[in-house]
Predict the 3D structure of the following.
Amino acid sequence: MPDRIRLDGKVAVVTGAAGVIGTATIRLLAERGARVVAVDRRELDLQGAIKDLPAAAQALAVTADVTDENEVAEYVRAAVDKFGAIDVFYNNAGIEGDVAPITRYSLEAFRRVLDVNVVGVFLGLKHVLPVMLKQNKGSIINTASIAGLIGSPEVAVYSASKHAVIGLTKSAALECSTTNVRVNCVCPGLIDSRMLSAIIQGRNPGNAPTPNDKIVERIPARRLGQASEVASIVAFLASDEASYVSGSAYTVDGGRTAS
Ligand SMILES: NC(=O)c1ccc[n+]([C@@H]2O[C@H](COP(=O)([O-])OP(=O)(O)OC[C@H]3O[C@@H](n4cnc5c(N)ncnc54)[C@H](O)[C@@H]3O)[C@@H](O)[C@H]2O)c1
């Protein structure tokens, strides 16, 4: 019997692949048998992210800015040219933006966050969906956040952008409902990462780093999540094991949003 959690031979395109969560995810997808197209705007870090992947992943690195429609079309074309299909799309690139109350948030910084986190996700959907719809199969996973489910002071635009990602996810899932293309998103909570440190430090400028027990006190699991734990849900959603899952927003948050 085939193991439905395996991804053998599937082609997975991952944006934000040079980041903490993206790198953990390309590693797990490759371990499960996927071939990998890794996309990021940071070329050197991208090369570092793919260098230890198994040879069977046939990893292709594409440097692209997800906010530029031509570059998005180019990473999609590069994947199809090399592998002839896109089975899995992890639409993950994102930024936290500035950390400041709305009254002090610049319009320029606001637009930048929306550009990467919402326009970037929209463009990925716009260009990958035609490939998957033509194949009549595929799984798309967008990265939202628990900040897409609840408010988040001093990163209001980040929170707004992630609410938008959930809306895009559900709408895209409905647009694909009569096909074999599924669209879901993950909502990570507080993940041990550069981005989390930047937000916490931004809320306490000039102060000593916030102790870990203070950070985790509102998390029922009493610990931060690991990028590998987000990757596990992405790999599940990417697989045939999730064949009846579409339009969902999966929290990976140690219970943070349960109450
Ligand atoms: N770290 C967390 O605690 C956390 C929690 C919830 C959600 N998220 C989301 O998870 C995703 C990954 O976050 P991470 O923690 O790995 O952050 P990260 O900063 O380590 O990785 C993000 C990656 O996206 C890339 N990127 C940013 N803008 C880009 C652009 N315009 N074009 C191409 N690439 C671009 C960056 O170069 C970086 O490699 C993001 O969408 C983030 O909002 C993170």
About this structure: The chain has eight helices and seven strands. Helices lie at 20-31, 43-50, 69-83, 107-135, 156-175, 194-203, 212-215, 227-238.
